[in-house]
């Protein structure tokens, strides 16, 4: 198996270092790592240190000998998924699976047909859950560069984001609406790809018009209709394969 990944504020240089706090507790008390096992320490921004465990002390201190460094380059093209707010914990499920697949950024979107609404204290708690999910899934997927989870955006803000993209798409299952297959879309080899995933009730005609004006066309994945919590993962996988990032 590949070495487990732990998050640190800054990547240490070669030599001995100590992993403590919540990450150290997870390494010692949950993963039960012992001397001689390999670990990776990352800042989540593309840099990592490869090391070997020298000792586990107490319940939350792991002594690591750093032997080298790793880097995860900036992705090209960069893939952002604008995710309409799903019901219940399906938002965290969407973030988790998209992170494991390889998405680079997730934007929560308050679509007009969303049943779930983020307001006040709930908004802060829900956003924190999404960001924590991305962080934990990033470690589980052995990534050195974790996806960014942006603040909640309105339709107007999403339209502005789409207008700046090198390729912008809205997932739309209705062929009568003129959606083309995403598998046949002409994609850039660099720059930014932004993909919009609507809520269970679909993207409204007004939202679709606003996004089209911003330069985003409607695309479909296949013959089956995916739930909002899984569509972003399927589309991300398709784009990663077609752009060569999964080569």
From TrEMBL:
Domain of life: Bacteria
Catalytic activity: uridine(1498) in 16S rRNA + S-adenosyl-L-methionine = N(3)-methyluridine(1498) in 16S rRNA + S-adenosyl-L-homocysteine + H(+)
Lineage of producing organism: Bacteria, Bacillati, Actinomycetota, Actinomycetes, Kitasatosporales
Database matches in NCBIfam families: PRK11713.2-3 (NF008693), RsmE family RNA methyltransferase (TIGR00046)
GO BP, sorted A to Z: methylation
EC number: 2.1.1.193
Domain annotation Ribosomal RNA small subunit methyltransferase E PUA-like: ranges: 19-66
UniProt similarity note: Belongs to the RNA methyltransferase RsmE family.
Subcellular location(s) per record: Cytoplasm
Keyword Cytoplasm in record: yes
Protein's name in the database: Ribosomal RNA small subunit methyltransferase E
SUPFAM superfamilies in the cross-refs: alpha/beta knot (SSF75217), PUA domain-like (SSF88697)
Native source organism of the sequence: Streptomyces chrestomyceticus
Domain Ribosomal RNA small subunit methyltransferase E methyltransferase: 75-239
Keyword Membrane assigned: no
Molecular-function GO term, any one: methyltransferase activity
Keywords: Cytoplasm, Methyltransferase, rRNA processing, S-adenosyl-L-methionine, Transferase
Functional note: Specifically methylates the N3 position of the uracil ring of uridine 1498 (m3U1498) in 16S rRNA. Acts on the fully assembled 30S ribosomal subunit.
Enzyme's top EC category: transferase
């Amino acid at each position: 198996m590949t070495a487990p990944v732990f998050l640190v504020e800054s990547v240490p240089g070669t030599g001995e270092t100590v992993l403590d706090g919540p990450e150290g507790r997870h390494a010692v008390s949950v993963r039960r790592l012992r001397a001689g096992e390999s670990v990776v320490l990352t800042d989540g921004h593309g840099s990592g240190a490869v090391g070997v465990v020298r000792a586990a002390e107490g319940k939350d201190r792991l002594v690591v000998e750093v032997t080298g460094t790793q880097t995860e380059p900036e992705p090209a093209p960069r893939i952002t998924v604008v995710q309409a707010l799903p019901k219940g914990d399906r938002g965290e499920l969407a973030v988790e699976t998209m992170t494991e697949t390889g998405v680079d950024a997730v934007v929560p979107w308050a679509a007009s047909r969303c049943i779930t609404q983020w307001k006040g204290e709930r908004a802060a708690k829900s956003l924190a859950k999404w960001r924590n999910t991305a962080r934990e899934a990033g470690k589980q997927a052995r990534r050195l560069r974790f996806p960014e989870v942006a603040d909640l955006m309105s339709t107007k803000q999403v339209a502005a984001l789409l207008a700046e993209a090198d390729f912008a798409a809205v997932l739309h299952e209705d062929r009568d609406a003129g959606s083309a297959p995403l598998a046949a879309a002409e994609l850039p080899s660099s720059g930014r790809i932004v993909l919009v995933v609507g809520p269970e009730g679909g993207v409204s005609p007004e939202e679709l018009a606003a996004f089209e004006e911003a330069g985003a066309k409607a695309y479909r994945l296949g013959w089956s209709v995916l739930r909002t919590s899984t569509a972003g993962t399927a589309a991300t996988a398709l784009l990663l394969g077609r752009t060569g990032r999964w080569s």
